[in-house]
Specification:
Length: 148
């Protein structure tokens, strides 16, 4: 599958978050063979849990699938640039590649506010931004316009 195909699935998951009143962010983790081993969407409102971000949900599912915490060889696809917490989770899970859709100018840690992956940690994922950027950003815009 291509990055755009994985991001299309992440957009479908983001729609689930939207339907439950959460910020529409979806995430997919694929192993080195391209098999999806984890999926998640924002569930902060649904679960009353500040940690229930799409990336954390997908990483938890991928770890459960693998039976361990180390996701070396995996790629993560998320509709919004990861925040500091999620970027930290990506580093700790040893995910190799991060693909994101829309930039997050307020909390993005893959280059917008800072690039956590360039800091002096023991793991440095490769980052690819702007994958299906317009549909990812449009979904977020619609959500925030409804709030106003």
């Amino acid at each position: 599958m291509t990055p755009e195909q994985y991001m299309t699935r992440a957009l479908e998951l983001a729609q689930r978050a939207l339907e439950t009143g959460d910020v529409p962010v979806g995430c997919v983790v694929a192993d080195r063979d391209g098999t999806v081993i984890g999926e998640g969407w924002n569930r902060r409102e649904a679960n009353s849990d500040a940690l229930a971000h799409a990336e954390v949900e997908a990483i938890r599912a991928a770890c459960a699938h693998r039976g361990g915490w180390n996701l070396h060889g995996c790629s993560l696809y998320v509709t919004l640039e990861p925040c500091p917490m999620c970027a930290g989770a990506i580093v700790n899970a040893r995910i190799d590649r991060v693909y994101y859709g829309a930039k997050d100018d307020k909390a993005g840690c893959c280059g917008s506010v800072l690039n956590l992956f360039m800091e002096d940690f023991n793991h440095h994922p490769r980052v690819y931004g702007g994958i299906l950027k317009e549909p990812c950003a449009a979904l977020l815009r619609r959500f925030f316009e409804r709030l106003r």
